[in-house]
Amino acid sequence: MILRSASLLLFALAVTGCAGTSRVMLGSARAPVDPAQVRIYTTPPPGSIEIAQLESSSAVGFGTQGQTDAAVARLKRDAAALGANGVILMGVGSSGSPVGMSVGAGSFGRHTAGGIGIGIPTTQKKAAGVAIYVPPGSQAPRP
Length: 143
Known about the structure:
Elements: H1 2-16, E1 20-25, E2 39-41, E3 49-57, H2 65-81, E4 86-96, E5 101-103, E6 106-108, E7 111-113, E8 118-120, E9 123-133
Parallel strand pairs: 2-4
Antiparallel strand pairs: 1-3, 3-9, 4-9, 5-8, 6-7
């Protein structure tokens, strides 16, 4: 029982540790803004200023819409931390996860649990975009 609990705890820590964001600065950062103010665009609005290129990934899962939403929300949070009030969404995709999940037989000391081992493939959702600042008064198209 202790082994099972420890295994689940280690798996949970590995899963949550896999989410992240990378960035390449393209301009100067500004004062942070509330992530709720960050809008998603498909094309750059007139007068927008590029701040950084961002790529984020969700936690490991089974390829759900929630993972996609989490990756885009992470883009918005990281853009807001750089003072961006918009993100030009370049794309969303998925990739095989560095962490897999398996269910099946195992042993601990003299105790053995029977069963058939099954590997369950997991994925991460990834989102890429460019953090931008849209000055007040710019004619920003609706996303």
